[in-house]
Amino acid sequence: MTSVVSPEWVLKVEQLGKIFGSLSENGLALTGPDIGSSKDPVTGAIVAAWDVSFEVAAGEALGVVGESGSGKSTVMRCIAGDQSSSAGSVQIRTSPNEQIDVLSLTPSERRQLRIDKIAVVYQDPAEGLDLNVTAGGNIASPLTAAGWRNFSSIRSRASELLLRTEVPLNRMDDVVKSFSGGMKQRVQLAKALANRPPIVLLDEPTTGLDASVAAGVLDLIRGLLEEFGLAAVVVSHDFSVIEMLTNRCIVMNHGRVVESALTDQLLEDPHHPYSQKLVSAARA
Amino acid sequence: MTSLLNDLIDNNESEQFGILDEYSKREIRRAVLTAVAVPGYQVPFGSREMPVARGWGSGGLQITLAVIGHNDVIKVIDQGDDQGVNAVNLRRLIVQSTKVSETTTAAKSSIVQSRHRIPEDGLDQRHILVLQVPVPEPLRGVERDMRELARMHAEADYSKMWVSLYEDKVRNGVITQTTGYPCLVNDRYVIATTPIPRWDIPKLDHSPFLTLFGAGREKRIYAVPPFTKVEPLTFEDVPFEVEKTEGATCSQCGSNSSFLVEIPGAQSRWVCSDTDWCERNLEGNL
Amino acid sequence: MSHTINNAEHVVLDVRNLRKHFVLHTIDSRIVEALNGVSLKVSAGEHVALAGTSGAGKSSLLKSIYRTYKPTSGEVFLKLDDDSFVDLISLTDSELATLRGTQIGYVSQFLRAQPRRSTFEIVTKAGIQRGMDSDTAKQAAAYSLQRLNLDEALWDVSASMLSGGEKQRVNLAAGTISPPRLLLLDEPVSALDPVNRESALELIGTLTDQGVAVLAVFHDIDAMERLASRVIVLRNGVVDYEGSPKETLERLEGVAR
Description:
The complex is a heterotrimer of chains A (284), B (286) and C (257).
Chain A: E1 9-20, E2 46-57, E3 61-65, H1 72-80, E4 87-95, E5 98-101, H2 107-116, E6 118-121, H3 125-128, H4 135-145, H5 151-164, H6 181-193, E7 199-203, H7 211-228, E8 231-236, H8 239-245, E9 248-253, E10 256-262, H9 263-268, H10 273-283
Parallel strand pairs in A: 3-8, 3-9, 6-7, 7-8
Antiparallel strand pairs in A: 1-2, 1-4, 4-5, 9-10
Chain B: H1 2-8, H2 22-37, E1 43-44, H3 58-67, E2 73-78, H4 85-98, E3 101-102, E4 111-115, E5 128-132, H5 146-154, H6 159-172, E6 183-185, E7 189-191, H7 201-204, E8 210-215, E9 220-224, E10 230-232, E11 260-263, E12 269-272, H8 275-283
Parallel strand pairs in B: 2-3, 2-4, 4-5, 5-8
Antiparallel strand pairs in B: 1-9, 6-7, 6-10, 8-9, 11-12
Helix pairs in contact in B: 2-3
Chain C: E1 11-24, E2 30-43, E3 47-51, H1 58-66, E4 73-79, E5 85-87, H2 93-102, E6 104-107, H3 119-129, H4 134-147, H5 164-176, E7 182-186, H6 194-209, E8 213-217, H7 221-227, E9 230-235, E10 238-243, H8 245-253
Parallel strand pairs in C: 3-8, 3-9, 6-7, 7-8
Antiparallel strand pairs in C: 1-2, 1-4, 4-5, 9-10
């Protein structure tokens, strides 16, 4: 039988794990979705994430679904470098021949990756933006970090990005603090895409926004993902977000992956008891 | 290196040469050598208590006292003026404790200690210029956390600085920083040029003289060695401009090509900041 | 309509003993059976209609082939470009996602994840996804939309603003643009008024001429009669009867719906 060739991965996560504190000998067996807890009953250590594996190709968006405490944000932060990991590997492909073993890099090298390889859009815009700086200035930050030194080129690129993320250009020189929540997220998106990174991680990108505002931002994200052929990981507890943005996803509970499926399949035919609970709650 | 520094310690002097003891001088010299070896890098040093209050040039004074020798000739200026109160006090302190000769003419000196100016002319490879620095950290306006500042310099991550220059230009149409304009030294470290005006910054680039920056209160020493590249930070398409007032000339010597300062009064009056240069210009003695 | 012989050479879809049951953990883990061993074949250029009472498993079958439902057991062989067959059930999610874009189409009554994107963009995008270049896709999109009588004034309108019937036609246009090897249709004209229904059926009718293998569910006997060369009747999750539309109808007439 011939195999179907699916596009090659750009981001590959293998058995990623993060434990806070020190685990007892049987700590892993004593935690997880079957036990119903991430906390080691002996030492109190938290198995925030364990044995998480997935691949994402260019132009693909993978959803990571779960309730708070599921470990989904931990996984994202470990890939982003905001958090150190305890186990596993994260690899990225920046070109067909070039592969980087992310977790083996020094913190300084990892910060370099954040300039133009891995972009992050946070739930709280204050984490991804400098609120005391203008919209244009926020975008100037990754550009100058990548070596841009021409003022009008920087302005030009920033305008282009703001236009694309539907931020009114007449607000380009306004300090971001004065923007609405939805507008802040748009600026975050513009900033994240400044150096055309191949990989984007989005953590609850529209949580906290009004429904109508969220719809607009999600639509924008979907368009951007397609247009730029990004490899994206979308972390959310909200199925409408997952449905809108992703075609594959994994479900996390108490730090472990309980199910991995095509998004439409997860929504219509969830298998794991926890997935079923989540989906039926969402449908309600 | 250590043996050489040891050699410099003179245990036979019955009277201490200068206010600093020999071991203090050694430590400052070590810091200075490190600074010269890594241009633009802020070297921490154990700043001693000086007979001048912090904020009045104690850092510059310590450097001068550590590098000065019997055959040196000292010039001290404050705002370009040899006769400014602080300049006078510092010079007196140095001369009385070390018995070295003094001068107001840069070309006749070997060490120039200054707050807020580089002399208009006269400095060459024989000279050491010692600048008094209030705030050595160029990134202080954009970052407060000490560890983050250390990281930014270590990783040459100056994007926050660039963003503040961008914001400045957007807000004001030009980059407005007057004193303390950030400069990139040897394509590596960004320094604060806090003591000197923009006018003097071009003098640092590939200068024949050694410039040492001393911050006593902040306990840092940094250096621009001779013939080192010093570039003011600016965007490619935003030229670095020095201060210039159209039509202003020195009311004493008539110059419009030196750095002028305004004398407050009913009518606007300008004079050369570098008083020694002004006098020589008037006498036709440049 | 041409009555294509079920020639093994032209078989595009070969479903073997497909079973699907659901385990409802949220309701005391009870088991609900949807498909109890369905086998069928569809050839290129053939339009096969699925019939049966509601609950018989028609939609479930389509969804199980498309893998919106993950089959419990059985095999679903699809012919690929190089004439080899691949069992869709054995593929990874990524591999299946790739195939869905290019080889398998699925049109239902629902426009999933309603985007703000315009009608024209949705259809064009579908074409691009199937491998068309931008210009060709735009032309094909215009053609499809015109054929389905979708007013040009609505082409730039956000799809979410359309009526049910208009959405369905957009769905159909998107699903049939650069038609894939296998097209699964689940009540694609249910919300259309007679005039639009007519155009839609006409469009669907041309698909088989292009060599597409079509497996469709219509509640509409007339549509079935008109388009299908073969009808497969499902009952309780298995194939009850298979025959020509005429034969099947006569048989069904005797059974209460």
